[in-house]
Design brief:
Length: 52
C-alpha cells in the first residue's frame, strides 16, 4: 500500500529547499531549450556547422 499524501506533507514541511531545486531544474531545462533553439537557427541560417 502506498501513502502519497503523508509523504507529500512531510516534503512540504521540510522547508523552502524543495521549491529551490524545482526552480533550478526549471531554469536548467529552459536554458537547454533556448540553447538548442539557437543552435538550430544557426544551422538553418547556413552560417553554422552543417548548414550548406
Amino acid at each position: 500500500m502506498m501513502r502519497f499524501p503523508k509523504k507529500k506533507r512531510a516534503l512540504e514541511g521540510s522547508g523552502p529547499r524543495w521549491w529551490l531545486w524545482r526552480l533550478a531544474a526549471e531554469a536548467a531545462r529552459t536554458l537547454l531549450a533556448v540553447i538548442r533553439t539557437l543552435l538550430w537557427l544557426w544551422r538553418e541560417s547556413g552560417d553554422g556547422p552543417g548548414g550548406r
